[in-house]
Amino acid sequence: MTALNRYPELGVQDRAALDALLDSQWAGVLSCVVDGEPLAVPMLYARDRDRVLLHGSTGAGALRQVAAGAPAVLTVFAIDALVVAPTTFESSVNYRSATVRGRLTPVDDHPAALDLFSDVVLPGRTEEVRPPNRKELAATLVLSLPISDGGWLLKIADDWPATPETAGADPGVWSGLVPGRWVADPPVPAPWASDLPVPASVRGLLDRLGPGREPG
Prior knowledge:
Blueprint lengths: L14 H10 L2 E8 L2 E12 L2 E7 L3 H7 L4 E13 L7 E11 L2 E2 L3 H12 L12 H5 L1 E7 L5 E6 L6 H4 L8 E4 L20 H10 L7
Antiparallel strand pairs: 1-2, 1-4, 2-3, 3-7, 4-5, 4-9, 5-8, 6-7
InterPro entries: Pyridox_Oxase-rel (IPR024747), Split_barrel_FMN-bd (IPR012349)
Protein name: Pyridoxamine 5'-phosphate oxidase family protein
């Protein structure tokens, strides 16, 4: 639970590397145990310094369980490249994965937390739209998962494929890496917004993640 048992050499203790992974993704899987049965729910999240914010409906069973104190774990995973080796057995992926464990606590300041959440996913959007109303705030549960020492594990696979000699393969077979990343394609306006200009928040997202942009 607190150390890597398989391929421990891939374990990374660098907190900055953990933050970089969490900041590069939008979605993870929140897992807990409910009445003796495993429960895993894909969720959006946002890192805020030494905590991870998650939100959802107050009627969501998984959130009610973890809000009541059930221990939980958030898993985040990013594939960085396909590793094409001289054999299929040696082929793999370069990836980064992290788990953050702990007990989640409800966040009292809903408006500020939701604004922060939105600005992590789409910076500047909160300035372009109205704030949540009372009904929306009452229907939303915001939880905080601490990022504490001993409460997270980070694993990074980042290497070349096995050599033909190591794999016992034909040296004339191509091998290498096929890097990949998430790319934002041109925005598609809703039918009722086709005559409206693309807002600054979306343009900024394209500047960071659009085709041809360098990751970072």
